[in-house]
Write a structure and sequence with these properties.
This protein has 457 residues and is of the alpha+beta class. Helix content is 27%, strand content 23%.
Length: 457
């Protein structure tokens, strides 16, 4: 046990996430791991969020060199399916060809026109420029040039679309602009080992919401990397969700996580609740997956009941066997951060993917994509959700397919962001002071970012 772990255990004796999780059985090895390396406890300058030069440096030295989540496999399941991924001024066209996944710079080799509209997806037999009708096959090879006699200087054999690295892991498709970058599996470091028991390839996007936010992409994402704010922004959650006693782990440059107990009171809660009360008032999670509430048997916990109900539902409705999954693997918020901008929650009771990007080329605005994943039904009859885009002042509750309580929590998280952005500009101090443990993963994000900006990665 290191110094940070000892501080947390002394602060919340018998009530850390690991303590709560072990009350319903032994933890699998991957969840029993703890990793909290020492950090430089420096302040983080607000210029890292507000300075246009810093933003440009990120674009050039970080975004062009990292593996970043672009879409799910089901978005490009059939030959001819395509998906456009945008980051800043850069744009990538991902297609499913006869030989597998391909990704191209979304720019015509003639006059540079975008080949497909930003944010679009669909099906196409080939890739055609909408301006002058130059055409490429799905494998990127040149197919046709109108009035081709006008271009004797073009070597047809070498006029294929410029490619971007593309790879898939666990049903998720990633791209990388750096042709010299190491393979995705190396970039993901410990993640494939951790996710061996959490297969998301048989799941699909049931809900996809994109919200425009009034803050830098880091500011927006960091609100989801700590629960220090929960008692004050989400006070209704403290009776049924562990927050200040969450476990935070930093495993490597690109991977960290937090583990939060569901149906377990926060250390800040002053309300005494029975196990039945916890079960009856448990609000957080994907309600469509957790199902109706039952009774808590003698000697069992609300957490055990929720996990057992979910196991039965997954078997009956989807033919999925989760009998060997522990209680926390079923219902807890197991949130993994993949540098720079991805959060993945693999537990079936709260299976989400969250992504944060600059909104266009604006350092002061970002987009937040939330994907809610459901298992593919046994009959194979499902439809991948189209993205529903909402503005800064729109509510997640307006999205009919979203769980109502989860939507209200997201509203609370995002409503505070303009205040934070404006406060950064108004600051006389010019920097933020982060906690030693609960906000350690935010500090780690900046540590890894610095390695890219300084050319160490």
């Amino acid at each position: 046990m290191n110094d940070i772990q000892k501080i947390m255990r002394d602060r919340y004796p018998g009530n850390t996430w690991a303590d709560v999780a072990r009350r319903d059985g032994e933890l699998p090895e991957v969840l029993a791991k703890q990793s909290n390396p020492k950090q430089n406890l420096r302040d983080i300058p607000f210029a890292r969020y507000t300075d246009p030069d810093f933003f440009e440096l990120e674009m050039e030295r970080m975004w062009k060199r990292v593996w970043q989540f672009a879409c799910r496999e089901e978005h490009v399941a059939e030959v001819g399916d395509y998906f456009v991924y945008d980051i800043g001024r850069m744009s990538v066209l991902i297609v499913r060809s006869e030989s597998g996944l391909k990704a191209y710079y979304n720019s015509c080799l003639h006059r540079g026109t975008k080949l497909k509209a930003s944010g679009s997806c669909g099906w196409s037999a080939n890739i055609t420029c909408p301006f002058h009708n130059w055409q490429w096959n799905l494998d990127g090879s040149l197919k046709a040039i109108p009035c081709d006699f006008e271009f004797p200087q073009v070597d047809r054999e070498r006029a294929g679309l410029a490619e971007v690295q593309v790879a898939s892991w666990n049903g998720m498709i990633f791209i990388n602009f750096d042709s010299e970058a190491a393979p995705l599996v190396d970039y993901l470091e410990v993640l494939p080992e951790h996710f061996k028991n959490w297969d998301l390839t048989g799941w699909y996007v049931a809900t996809h919401v994109r919200k425009h936010l009034p803050g830098n992409w880091k500011l927006s994402m960091e609100a989801f990397m700590e629960a220090y704010h929960t008692p004050y922004v989400h006070p209704e959650m403290t009776n049924v969700v562990g927050d200040h006693n969450m476990q935070h782990d930093i495993f490597s440059d690109h991977v960290s996580r937090d583990l939060c107990a569901m149906a377990s009171p926060s250390p800040t809660s002053r309300q005494q609740m029975s196990q039945q009360d916890l079960l009856d008032t448990m609000l957080v999670g994907d309600g469509k997956m957790v199902g109706d509430r039952a009774k808590v048997p003698e000697g069992k916990t609300a957490r055990w009941v929720m996990a057992q109900q979910l196991r039965e539902q997954m078997q009956d409705q989807y033919g999925l066997d989760y009998s060997n999954h522990s209680v926390p693997e079923m219902i807890d918020s197991l949130k993994y951060h993949v540098f720079p901008n991805l959060l993945v929650y693999p537990a079936p009771g709260l299976c989400l993917v969250q992504q944060f990007r600059p909104d266009g080329h604006d350092r002061d605005r970002s987009t937040f994509d939330q994907y809610v994943l459901h298992p593919k039904p046994l009959d194979g009859d499902y439809e991948v959700a189209e993205v529903q885009v909402i503005g800064e002042h729109d509510s997640f509750t307006a999205v009919e397919s979203m769980d109502a309580f989860l939507a209200s929590v997201l509203d609370q998280d995002t409503d505070i962001m303009r205040w934070q952005r404006e406060g950064m500009y108004a600051s006389g101090k010019g920097a933020e002071t982060l906690s030693i443990y609960q906000e350690s993963r935010i500090r780690h994000l900046h540590d890894t970012l610095d390695k890219y900006l300084e050319g160490l990665k």
